[in-house]
Structures are given as structure tokens and as C-alpha cells.
Specification:
With 277 residues, this protein is of the alpha/beta class. The protein folds into two domains: 5-205, Rossmann fold (3-Layer(aba) Sandwich), CATH 3.40.50.150; 214-275, Helicase, Ruva Protein, domain 3 (Orthogonal Bundle). It has twelve helices and nine strands.
Amino acid sequence: MPLSPTSTRELLEALEHFPNKKLGQNFLVDGNIVRKSIELAEIGLGSAVVEVGPGLGTLTLAILNTGATLWAVERDATLVRHLQSQFAAEPLPFHLLEGDCLDAPLAALPAEVAEGGFKIVANLPYAVSTPWMEAVLAGDLPECMVLMLQKEAAERYAATHGRKTFGAISIFLQSAFEVHSKHLVAAQCFHPAPKVDSVLLRLDRRRDAIRFSPVARECIRRIFTQRRKQLGALCKREAVPQAARWFDQLLSIGVSPTIRPEEVPIERWQDLARQLP
């Protein structure tokens, strides 16, 4: 059973651990959301799963109870010791790495396992959600991801062109994954309750997943750091010389030079990826 708000507080007191705001430690205390996460990820016997930030182990235990094999990465040393103690009694297929998810985005998942297909379940702190995602997109791609994100981060991941939240991470992510479903999660489902609502997001890998090279990613990031400027001015500047030929092609198909970056459809950004290997 998932930890209740009361049992979560009691366990944290027993561990003499205070939730670290800097690390985004908001512990899930709603059993329905735990079950929904498992259902969305379609985890079962034989599944290979990566969990980011297992915390007190509520979702961890639910994943292991499906018969899946789990690789997890946790940065907080106190929580690592708790997890090691919690799961030491039984020989469960649980591999725990103490470290930063930005250094090990897939929790040291073996390459041979990754090649066979895996899934990711993560309750991501807002501060690391974008750099972590970019690290995942640069490596072996999971079959699907079920991510708990602050609402603002989820909106950026799923944003379509023409929206103010559409940016570089929207392009990189949606070129490789399709947004399958979104579920709003109230702040009261966590302890301590964050100041904003969250979103449970499922992403499915596209058959024709498009990857962006480091050069293409950097080029697009630099354009979006000045997103209020007209695309013509941005692409003709020395700051992004790689984009000049791409922009000329946009003009040739009737795109206005006064268009702003967020107004350009994702397919056109994918054209840039093909030009910058």
C-alpha cells in the first residue's frame, strides 16, 4: 500500500529527514496516482524500468510488485540508505544507484537491457526536468515514459507551435515522442504539498523518432533564448550562422521573415535537424 500523508510524515521523522526543497522532494501520498502511473506505463512481469528519484520507495514498491526489474537513481544519501534497508530483506530485482540523475539519466541501465526495450517512470523536480530530458533524448530512447512534472514543465513538453510555451525542449521531445495522455494531479497528492499542481504525462516513442545533433540542439536553443525577436534577424546574425541556409529555405516556401521562433511549425525545425548532422 502507498504511504499515507500521516505515515509519510512519521517515516520522515523516524529518518530525521526534512524534505529538501532544493532537490524538489515532494513525496507522493495518493494511492490512486501510484496505480495510475503503473497503468499508464503498462508495466508487468519482465518489464525493464528506470525510476528517477524513488524517494521513500512508494512507487518503487508498486513497480517491483508487478514483476518488473527496476533500475533507480537517487541523489539523497539518507533516502538511499532507507531504500537499501527497505528492500534488503527480499532478493528483489532492484538496482539502486546513488547519484545525480543528470549524470546518470538512465540509472546505469546496462546497454544490453536498453537495447531490448525499457520504460521510464519519474517524479521529476522542476529544476532538472529539462536538462534530464535532453540527456535522455541524446541516448537510448525508452519505449515510453510516464513522468510526474510540475504543470509548467508539462506544458512546455507538450506545447504546439504558436503557443508561448513552445520552445526548444518541445521540439526535441515531440520529434522523438508522442504525447499519449495528460492527467492533472493536485498539490494535495504530495507531502509536503507544492505550491503548484502537477501533471502525469505519458510519452510514447515514435517509430520515426528524430534525433537532433549537438550542433542542431545548440543552434535551436540559441534562437529560442531570443524568442521575442523576429526569426529573420536571429538567423542572419553571426550568433546562429548555421541557420542562415535553413532560413532562406523557409523564405522560399513563403514563410515571413518577421515570424517569431514559436510560430514556426515543428516540421520546419526538423528540417534544420536534417541539415545539421
